[in-house]
Design goal:
Layout: E1 2-5, H1 10-18, E2 23-25, H2 35-45, E3 49-52, H3 66-87, E4 91-96, H4 119-133, E5 138-143, E6 146-147, H5 154-162, E7 167-171, E8 175-176, E9 179-180, H6 181-197, E10 203-206, E11 213-214, H7 215-226, E12 231-235, H8 267-280
Parallel strand pairs: 1-2, 1-3, 3-4, 4-5, 5-10, 6-9, 7-12
Antiparallel strand pairs: 8-11
The structure holds NADPH dihydro-nicotinamide-adenine-dinucleotide phosphate (NDP), dtdp-4-keto-L-rhamnose (TDO) and magnesium ion (MG).
Function: Catalyzes the reduction of dTDP-6-deoxy-L-lyxo-4-hexulose to yield dTDP-L-rhamnose.
Protein name: dTDP-4-dehydrorhamnose reductase
Pathway: Carbohydrate biosynthesis; dTDP-L-rhamnose biosynthesis
Length: 285
């Protein structure tokens, strides 16, 4: 049995869809601000694999709430990874492009130097370090710009804002790969089962949607596919001040995922599926 930390989040929901036998633990079952209690659940259930799909993901709020973010994004994954090592099951952890400072235009490979610009990235990087230090069979999957038909994400924000706006100013100088949560869920499940058979595959990997695009370009495609007439004006990051600085270069080199037979998903076609799922639920019309 696969044990998943997370239940209501974008990734956890997509894992649950694809692995109906997995046990998905929500905050009410496993509160990550209490890492040792969560670790005990691993020792109790003795799963075949653990996937951590929960995190503190409010990037701007983390700037003024770093202690909570650190407990959830760093202390908890470290404790979960130690418990997984104790019971001898692989631990799959998800991290972020925001561990990088985002200089230059070259895609980052997994071994490139990290230097987070904000509290969210700092706490996620500390989580990666805790997972590696736990000494068990693990995979750290860094992804970026996650979207799905459920929960808070950039697609939902754009559809909501476009209902009342003819024009939106969106940053055009941050470039990255929008990534469908469904594809990350498949990747996590593939990695978990392959790691159980071949521990030599353990390590840090990158996984993001292709092709790379700016947030403004992503917004334009959201409006094109959803038939919205809202236009997008690309602006420099300097004209969109936020509490947390974000990397300009979020490009991830995903080449080593070939080891698992995984390739970068095409985000535009996944977006079509996500929009049609949202329209079936009449989240937009
Ligand atoms: N969203 C993105 O754009 C990106 C996300 N990632 C990473 O991908 C992973 C999945 O993210 P995603 O699915 O988008 O995240 P979401 O924001 O959609 O969901 C986060 C989940 O974590 C849960 N959670 C938060 N705090 C706690 C807590 N104290 N105890 C238990 N559960 C908690 C939330 O539960 P509740 O609903 O109860 O609050 C929620 O289910 C994370 O590791 C994230 O850092 C990486 C790159 C981009
Ligand atoms: C709403 C809005 C956002 N923006 C900008 C702000 C930001 O640079 C970009 C995206 O906004 P968001 O709030 O969705 O960004 P953000 O929450 O920072 O998204 C990040 O979340 C975390 C969890 C990750 O790990 C990252 O990979 C990334 O997905 O768009 C505009 O330029 N105009 C707007 O009207
Ligand atoms: Mg956000």
């Amino acid at each position: 049995m696969i044990l998943v930390f997370g239940k209501s989040g974008q990734l956890a929901r997509e894992i649950a869809r694809r692995a109906p036998d997995a046990l998905c633990l929500g905050r009410e079952d496993a509160d990550l601000t209490r890492p040792e209690g969560c670790a005990r659940l691993i020792r109790y259930h003795r799963p075949t694999a653990v996937i951590n799909a929960a995190a503190y993901t409010a990037v701007d709020r983390a700037e003024s709430d770093e202690d909570t973010a650190r407990r959830i994004n760093a202390d908890a994954p470290a404790a979960l990874a130690r418990a997984s090592a104790d019971v001898g099951c692989p631990f799959v952890h998800v991290s972020t492009d925001y561990v990088f400072a985002g200089d230059g235009e070259t895609p980052f490979s997994p071994e490139d130097g990290t230097a987070p610009l904000g509290a969210y990235g700092r706490t996620k990087l500390a989580g990666e370090e805790g997972v590696r230090a736990a000494g068990g069979v693990h995979a750290i999957l860094r992804t970026s710009w996650v979207f799905s038909a459920h929960g808070g994400n950039f697609v939902a924000s754009m559809l909501r804002l476009s209902a009342t706006r003819d024009m939106l100013s969106i940053v055009g100088d941050q470039i990255g790969g929008p990534t469908p949560a469904g594809a990350i869920a498949e990747a996590c499940l593939t990695i978990a089962s392959r790691l159980a058979r071949d521990p030599s595959l353990a390590g840090t990997y990158h996984f993001s949607g292709a092709p790379d695009v700016s947030w403004a370009g992503f917004a334009e495609e959201i409006f094109r596919q959803s038939g919205r007439s809202t236009t997008v004006t690309p602006i420099p990051s300097s004209q969109y001040p936020t509490p947390a600085r974000r990397p300009m270069n979020s490009r991830l080199d995903c080449g080593t995922l070939h080891r698992f037979g995984l390739e970068r998903p095409d985000w535009a076609s996944a977006l079509r599926e996500v929009l049609s799922e949202m329209s079936e639920r009449s989240e937009w019309a």
